[in-house]
Amino acid sequence: MIFPPTSDIIHILYFVAIVAEAMTAALAAGRREMDWIGVFLLGCITALGGGTVRDVFLNHYPLSWVENPSYLLVTGLSALATIPIARYMYHLRKMFLFLDAIGLVVFTVIGCQIASSLNLPLIVVVAAGVLTGCLGGVLRDILCNEVPLLFRSELYATVSVFTGLIYLIVPLVGVSHAISSLVAMALGLMLRLLAIRFNWCVPTFVYTKDPR
Amino acid sequence: MIFPPTSDIIHILYFVAIVAEAMTAALAAGRREMDWIGVFLLGCITALGGGTVRDVFLNHYPLSWVENPSYLLVTGLSALATIPIARYMYHLRKMFLFLDAIGLVVFTVIGCQIASSLNLPLIVVVAAGVLTGCLGGVLRDILCNEVPLLFRSELYATVSVFTGLIYLIVPLVGVSHAISSLVAMALGLMLRLLAIRFNWCVPTFVYTKDPR
Amino acid sequence: MIFPPTSDIIHILYFVAIVAEAMTAALAAGRREMDWIGVFLLGCITALGGGTVRDVFLNHYPLSWVENPSYLLVTGLSALATIPIARYMYHLRKMFLFLDAIGLVVFTVIGCQIASSLNLPLIVVVAAGVLTGCLGGVLRDILCNEVPLLFRSELYATVSVFTGLIYLIVPLVGVSHAISSLVAMALGLMLRLLAIRFNWCVPTFVYTKDPR
Question: Which of B200, B207, B209 to mutate to test binding with chain A, by most A CBs within 10 Å of its CB?
Fold first, then answer.
């Protein structure tokens, strides 16, 4: 198991999430005119990279894809499968924004669960969630030679932090961790969807003096 | 030893490979007008980065350059030695393409051997080979602020995957792992050279709709 | 403790250093018009990234910020605190160059101390110091989509190498490691300040033939 088996729901959502992340990564690869191997690899890295770095930082071995190598095939093949259907995906972009939002909150909660299971401090639990939720996209953007969207987009990392905090706070009122995971995902998803709908943004810091 | 001692041939080829990778990294550094320290560091990172990340992912410690720190000097100094001879290297570019191809298949087989020695699943054995063979060049390209060539060039990662698969398949007919390593390197090298000679490419995925 | 307690001075300087690194990272974030979350994260990554990668490479767990998660808050909040005062920082830029130079030598010595405490070879001790001192800035530049300054700027990595070598050499004359740490920091700081003052540079390697 790559995460404590609190719920089959999370396991199913995890599969949906890595497939969705791999497919959006494939589109990013297509914008950079990568070849099919590049599409495959970028799909794997985007979908599994956040969890990989989290596990390396927390010394939590074996990595998920070392224990379950089928994840490599699932994500890589999902990315490849995107190539023939990309022309239709524009019409499905709202669905993909929704799946991407699910991925964000599911990855975050899984990261929090793993750090919790290792009895790490609360701040580290949130940090592990944010790493898991956000780092895949950062790696994708670095490999596509772009400034990571994460650092500039609407509430993406914010939703991850928020989801992690909810995950920590809800058990304080006597609710089980399984329930708090679901509540955190639901509220995080809601915040993300509202942010997309109303175009909410975190304020930007613009500094122009003293260019290097 | 950084890899199971199946063969002194592989050990010698490994040295040839890290020197060749460091020297081509030096040329990339020169295109970006890096200083000598940058040349030294980029040589080390390109030649040793793939194996380092593989070992971190597989929890295989100590890292090769921590156990054999002379590798840092060999690769860094090879990169520096490239500076005075760079003007002649253009005439030797075919030799360097050849050495780079040797590096690719040697690194791949070493990665496969290490994952095999840890009794990891077959897909992970191939993945470890590809990581070892290809990641150094990806790190070089990221540090030079380019979209990694790997994701766009002729059969580079493909050759690595192919070499890893041969490494797995050959023992099935009753051949020792030492022999299968040599066979995998020979066939992988042949594929790479043919790809260079005939300009074989993996098809490209071009996606222009829905720019972010 | 993230480092062997040779000296409270180093501990205090470490705090000064991570705050200074986080604040300069915030300015880099502002030049890329990142949002506040991006500023927070870039502050953490720049200030703590070098030590994190060093610890991963040396298998030295738990990571400093996992054991002392307050570091995440200190660095992230320092970066955020930079936003309202950025307009005045231009006038303080000499002070920040000085604080950044302190960070460089303090990080380097801490990295050397940790590798020494693990009884690693001398070359690895220096390499661990350079990783700790320089990698945070490299990660910052990658995330801002720039060719890392390290590879092109005046004596930055050189100062780190120099500091590490002094750290190794001084004990040979019978001085304690605590004293050698202070000597290494003082001489490294002096070299850095002289390099800034007199614009000393490492020679550059410029290679224009054979563009890819």
Answer: B207
pLDDT at B1 exceeding the cut of 50: no
Query: C48: left (phi > 0), else alpha (psi -120 to 50), else beta?
Result: alpha
pLDDT in the model for residue A25: 92
Provide the chain C residues 60-119 that lie in CB contact (below 8 A) with chain B: none
Residue A51, amino acid:
G
Look at residue A177 in the predicted model and tell me its pLDDT: 82
Among candidates A198, A184, A181, which has minimal Cα distance to A9?
A181
Q: Residue A52: pLDDT above 50?
A: yes
CA distance B137 to chain A (A): 12
B36–C121 CB contact, under 8 Å: no
Helix residue ranges, H only, chain B: 8-31, 36-57, 64-67, 70-89, 93-117, 122-143, 156-169, 177-198
How many CB pairs lie under 8 A apart between chains B and C? 97
**What would the pLDDT profile of B9-45 be if each residue is shown by its tens digit?**
888 999 999 999 999 899 989 988 888 988 999 999 9
pLDDT for position A201? 84
CA C147 vs CA B34, B120, C152: distances in Å: 9, 37, 9
Q: B54, B131 in Cβ contact below 8 A?
A: yes
pLDDT tens, position by position, A72-126: 999 999 999 999 988 887 777 788 888 889 999 999 999 999 999 999 999 999 9
CB-based contact A31 B207, cutoff 8 Å: yes
Find chain A residues with C-beta within 8 A of C53's C-beta: none
- Print burial letters for A164-194: b (CB count within 10 Å at least 16), e (below 16): bbbbbebeeeeeebeebbbbbbebbbebbee
pLDDT of the residue at C154: 64
The count of other CB atoms within 10 Å of the CB of residue C90 is 12
The model's pLDDT over C27-37, given as tens digits with 9 standing for 90+, comes to 989 988 888 98
The verdict on a CB contact (< 8 Å) between B157 and A41 is yes
Can you tell me whether residue A124 is helix, strand or coil?
Answer: helix
Q: Are C106 and C159 in contact (CB under 8 A)?
A: no
Chain A touched by B138 (CB under 8 Å): yes
Contact (CB, 8 A) for B42 and B51: no
CB contacts, 8 Å: B61 with chain C: 59
Instruction: Give the mutation candidate from C151, C168, C191, C209 for the B interface (greatest B CB count, under 10 A).
Output: C151
CA distance linking residue A136 with residue B117, whole number of Å: 29
Q: What's the confidence (pLDDT) of residue A212?
A: 46
Pick from B23, B24, B34, B142 the residue to mutate for testing the C interface (most C CBs within 10 Å). B34
Task: Write the single-letter amino acid at A154.
Answer: E
| Residue A35 pLDDT greater than 50, yes or no | yes
The predicted complex's ipTM stands at 0.88
Selection from B96, B90, B82 nearest residue B34 by Cα: B82
Which residue on chain C is closest to A207 by alpha carbon?
A: C30
Helices A70-89 & B122-143, crossing angle to 10 degrees? 60
> In this predicted model, what pLDDT tens digit does every residue of B42-76 receive, in sequence order?
999 999 999 999 999 999 999 999 999 999 999 99
Tell me the sheet residues that pair with B204.
A35
Which candidate, A137, A29, A135, places its Cα nearest to that of A82? A29
Per the CB < 8 Å rule, is B205 touching A26?
Answer: yes
pLDDT at B151 over 90: no
